Structure to design on (159 residues):
């Protein structure tokens, strides 16, 4: 790292534009647009597309102006108008969205079959319910028998 003669670019004084200079440049630009037949940028929102392509492309250097070369990797961002957008066309779903919809449909199908009792799990649930129902009925019968026996015993003991 030489420390001698030449100094780097750091530490140079900053140049600021004064407001009068900026106003003068803006007025000159407006006059140029008005005299040149070019509309100011504020009215560029109209439906006409007159030479908008000239503003988007920078000045071509050297041979670029003479030879027309299309870069396939360059993406040109053209803004679409609201009237041109077609909202009625069906939107292609992404893989995740398709999978999510398929998953929901499969779940609905399974629940429908489950409610009809056609799935293995539904059959197992119904069998378990039948067993529990039978056990409760048996328990209720036993209670009734015990109650009747008690009543019979009480009636005999009162005599």
């Amino acid at each position: 790292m030489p420390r001698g003669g030449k100094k780097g670019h750091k530490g140079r004084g900053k140049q600021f534009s004064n407001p009068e200079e900026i106003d003068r440049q803006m007025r000159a630009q407006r006059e140029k647009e008005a005299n040149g037949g070019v509309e100011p940028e504020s009215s560029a929102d109209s439906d006409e597309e007159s030479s908008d392509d000239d503003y988007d492309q920078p000045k071509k250097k050297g041979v670029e102006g003479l030879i027309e070369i299309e870069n396939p990797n360059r993406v040109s961002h053209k803004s679409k108008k609201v009237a041109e957008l077609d909202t009625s066309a069906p939107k292609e779903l992404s893989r995740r969205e398709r999978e999510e919809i398929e998953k929901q449909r499969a779940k609905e199908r399974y629940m429908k079959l489950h409610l009809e009792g056609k799935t293995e799990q539904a059959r197992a649930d119904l069998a378990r319910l039948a067993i529990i129902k039978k056990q409760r009925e048996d328990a209720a019968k036993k209670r009734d028998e015990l109650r009747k026996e008690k009543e019979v015993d009480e009636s005999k003991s009162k005599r």
